[in-house]
Fold these 2 entries.
Entry 1:
Amino acid sequence: MPKPLAIDDALLAHLGELARIRLPADRQEELRGKLQQLVSAFSSLGEVDFDVDGAPEARTVTPAELRADEAETPPSVADVLSNAPQTAADCFVVARVIEP
Amino acid sequence: MSNTPTSATAIARAIQNGEVRATDIVTAQLDRIQRVDPELGAFCSTFSERAQQGAARLDERQKAGEQLGPLAGVTIGSKDNLLVTGEPASAGSKMLATFCAPFTATSLQRLEQHGGLLLGRTNMDEFGMGSTTETSSVQKTRNPFGHDLVPGGSSGGSAAAVAADLCPIAVGSDTGGSVRQPAALCGVTGLKPTYGRVPRYGLIAYASSLDCVGALARTAEDLALWLDCCSGQDGADATSLPTPEPVAKLLGERQDLRGLRIGVPRELNGEGIDPEVLAATQKAISQMRDLGAEFIDCALPSAKHAVPAYYLLATAEAASNLARYDGVHYGLRSEHEALGQQSSIDTTTLSRSEGFGPEVQLRIMLGTFASSYGYSAQFYERARLARRALQCEFQGLFEQCDVLLSPTSPTAAPHFGDKQDDPLARYMWDALTVPASLAGIPAISMPCDQTSDGRPIGLQAMAKHGNDGLALQLAHVFQQHSEHHLRRPQL
């Protein structure tokens, strides 16, 4: 039986960075506990021998016919910006990425 | 409401025949919502003006002798993750608390084109992530059969609305059981169509390879009417299927279940299921046998891997889909004082940390883990294999059987807060519904009994890919010979 994977501080911080989620310490601990429980339980999939070689491809996503290659009227600037939390000069205001 | 018809089919017929006015139906439903819903919490808000104007137009057309659509005057609730132009759509999340939809979802647009009247948006678990509607940031929704009971989820508001006669049809979405499970817990009928049969355009995404627009109603007959009105290809959804044959006309073709081979997979009819639920399923099997069905004991071995596979795939897709909530384009933008001072915590991180609830954050983190470098081979790829194995087993079973049967939920409606801190135990509640979701096949839940303390119990029927009509037909025949679907809560 392989040792269960541990969700340690470094892994949790890495996942938080990828997911762009950062929580206060108490919530972080709770999240770690739940994540650990799920990851440990779901590790069982790694031990199963799924024999699907040669099986017919099952249908899950069945793409429909492609639509005609015709230009459509794009939404107006006002529509696109209508739910933006912050705008300026018909543009989204984005997060600062370069330090002054 | 006592003198007006309550099923969608009966309402549409009465309006087409001029026996009742659409405006009277809308007024009666809005009055009932005002009386009953403050306690229940099924609707987040109503579209009163839209519904009343639509009803007035229908009445004028009826008076002018025009042919009305098959859903004429049928009031419809729509889950809070389906867009309706000019109306709020929050997906139950603080993240989208102020979002106003710029267009209408294809599925809802089609219902309106057929005479349906959108009545309001119904409560749901945040982004569809939950099985009790408790993760909604909007409000609490109670089960009409017991106000201390959850309505199920994530389409809990839609299920409660139909059970309480606030509308005859409510649209929901089903990613891993979010239509069928609340239908079972609230004593109504719920359909998850074949993946792609109803377009997803305008549905706020959770897990794109699993998301299906579905519906809840009191009867399979009303669901067939709904399905015929919104099925079919949509240029805005590349996964939508070509327009299929209508199903409503199939319902009258069968009076009993003779010639139907029904499989009962052992893995979905035994371990982990409440004895009262199992007994109710056995009773329904016995009734169906009396109606002429032939029963086949069968196996679906990969079903035991369905919960891990589902939660790894769904959360990986969710982590990707929900990356769009960045605090810039739409949705909540943090106003935290750290912004602008600390470069390591940016607008996006703060906005997502404030805007998403704990369950959504947990699932995003799990999905990020499952699909990240170093872990994807052991988790995401294994989950894909498990899904494929399950699909193959379903294909094999449908060579021997026409329909597969199981309980919809392992238990009847639990109380608020049950297993709140145990995500694995909560996810296991979905063990009977996620297999059909992973396979993309149609599945319907129908009321089949109640527990000794009066909580509804649901029965699930699954059919082959594209054979939604057969699932509906089976439920319709069962409902022609039973009265479980007619049982109403005391409100």
Entry 2:
Amino acid sequence: MLNKEDKSNAMNRFIGFVKKEFFHIIRDPRTLIIILGIPISQLLLFGFVISTEIKDAKIAVYDQSKDYMTTRIVNKLTSSGYFQLQENLESDHGVEAIFRKGEIKEVLVFEPDFAAKIERNGSANIQLLTDASDPNVARMVNMYTQNIINKFIQQERLGQEVPMQIDTSVKMYYNEETKSVFMFVPGLMAMIMMLVSALMSSISITKEKEMGTMEVLLVSPLKPIQIILGKVIPYLLIAFIDAIIIILMGNLVFQMPIYGSLTLLMSECFLFIFLALSLGILISTVAPNQLIAMFISMIGLMLPTMLLSGFIFPIESMPKVLQWFSCIMPARWFNEIVKNVMLKGVGLLFVWKQTIILLGMSALIVALSVKKFKIRLE
Amino acid sequence: MEREKVIEVKDLVKKFGDFVANDHLTFDVYKGEIFGFLGANGAGKTTAMRILCGLSMPTEGKLKVNGFDVYRQSEKIKKSIGYMSQKFSLYEDMTVAENIRFYGGIYGLKRSDRIKKQQQLLNDLGMPEMKDKLVGSLPLGWKQKLAFAIAIVHDPQIVFLDEPTGGVDPITRRQFWNLIYEAASRGITIFVTTHYMDEAEYCDRVSIMVDGRVEALDTPANLMANYQAANMNEVFLHLARKAKNVE
């Protein structure tokens, strides 16, 4: 049994240790930039890209019918201020070539006898071909075109007895799925928390190993668990602050709604940070020095988190193998949770599956790193 | 007169798989002496030292440090020893005073004691004006002296020094040994590994390890007499030539 004095002594030791860790963080400008500058700048960058307005987007038209109706539609588009007619095509062979040049964002294809079909059947087809190599722009261009055409239909309907129909069938080139405008906030949260928790903590632990201070700490009366906790607690706090910054900025600057419970959202963030920190500890038990720790975190964690979590590329459009692979990415499940809680406002009842997956992953990683840490002490 | 033993090692064996790093080591270290622990690279001296410090568990053997059992009382051992690793081990991004207070803190010194210690330590080293300097900006010699002073900031009974003078010029080494003598005169037992044979001659007793065994253990004077050597270097070469495990 520990007596009271021993306990308060142990607590004092621990507090001194955490304080020391804050010294390291505050005195290293690079660390400060990573933990505070990156979240803010990344969010602004991503936010800026997403909220770009379409202005004078260049389009081409392949009009196989060339009647009064198609001309009016094209006029509507070009007079809106959003589009600029660049080229009239004579066949659909040139579409790929035009997109490759990169200037033209969208090609409208009117089927033959457009106006006649509308008069006869009340419906006709326009095909929208979009260069989705930049999915955000493609999505915007596409949305705007459809809106303008829909407005045109409504206006035309007023004078008609039989409601007429124009079906637009859409095909996005290069990227079939361009869903969810607000994907970037959850994705960015996952990425930043991975960065601060896993990368920074693994670097800071391996730094002690490299400097030889870890040995001195292990010889001291501090217990290994105290050393590890003392090293990661500051990063837990910082990652949590980063999460709050991102949510606040997403909400205030980019109007990302928070429909669900804030407590649930923050608890899930906490769970994810915990998981990322345990990953960082695991990496630090494997990596002999800071460089390798950084390498493993970057290649093994950051890249997959960005690429495979559905943050930048939709999981639905990945090859099957990568889709399976994305299942072991914690960020994938975290993204789903955050999206559901923030945008759909669902409760734990709807994200319990993802939450359990994250809990399971954390347990596994903690068990692994405890085992590794013990072996290293041997 | 029976002297007080602070380290008792009997038949210490440490194996890593098939490799026997320590092969039935037996030796005692007495209170207040400067004990030199010598051996070529790979002879197993670092392994033995790590076991005595509680960084590693022995495979078999009876070991006591400060009267505490290595297997069961490692917590108590840790509180009663100091350690300075061959890698210089202070935090470069913290000031001299912060380092002293930090290490004092993890050894459980009270706040008031820490401040007192800090003053005294800086005065002893003759560097009170460097209190608020970042350790990273100090010359290597100063860092080393500071590291030693901090290793004994909690007045341990034994301090383990793992090649403390590597890469330091002869004058600084001499100064460093003055600090060691001073600590020993205060009753702190010094357990030191080194590669410098002139330093071996400063020790009260020296053990020389070859291939995981203690080949010789005596005062430097007796060793030189036994091996008819003019200095410790010759003694060492005579013994180390038999080694098979050389890195």
